[in-house]
Amino acid sequence: MTEKKIEAEIIKVENFSFKRDVRVKIMEARLLLSQSSLTKSGYNPYKNIRYYELKDILPPILKIFRNLQLFSNFSVVGELAILEITDLETNTSEKFTSSVMIGEVQGCTATQNVGAMHTYMRRYLYMNALEIVEYSDNEENSTETIVYFNNLKHQIRNKADLKTLRQFVLEQTNNIKVRLNEKQKNILRSCIYERKNQLLV
After folding, report:
1. Which helix (H) or strand (E) holds 97?
2. Tens of pLDDT along 77-106?
3. 3-state percent breakdown (helix, strand, coil) of the chain, nearest 5
4. pLDDT tens digit string along 166-191?
5. Residue 124 parent element (H or E)
6. Of 21, 96, 112, 154, which is most buried by a Cβ count within 10 Å?
């Protein structure tokens, strides 16, 4: 092989090494997002869990996509929701899809129901594409949860009168910071009941 051909092959290898297709960039985006601090602003009172809303995850995702030169487009075609991520450097793309069904929310118009479905599916597909872990069953046994639980018990047992006890319970009910399991919630109920009876004496 001549010197010129060898040089040409080296240039090809070097050029190839700098061409990352969309899948490689998505992997990088997943890693960068996993290292960022995301806050769960959504709350489900029936399951007593917090979750990521679209507004929690979209801004950091768009920032990462801009730096990696990725473009994302969400669309709904028939009964299929599609999130397509395109690498602007190589023009390669990857699609993430899910079937959709428009649920009816009481008090909402048909248009509002469609909008709610779009928001939910965008959130779902972004979480799927970026592999965002929302909740683990071990969360209720985390150090943060145990400290929070023990602090609640201590505060309940040290309330000076019924008024402050009721106010504290109401505030905590409307501002649950971590997930508590049923055993923990039952213990807190017992603490409240016990302290209430002590204050009534």
Report:
1. strand 93-99
2. 988 899 999 999 999 999 999 887 665 555
3. 55, 15, 30
4. 887 777 665 555 566 677 777 888 88
5. helix 110-129
6. 96
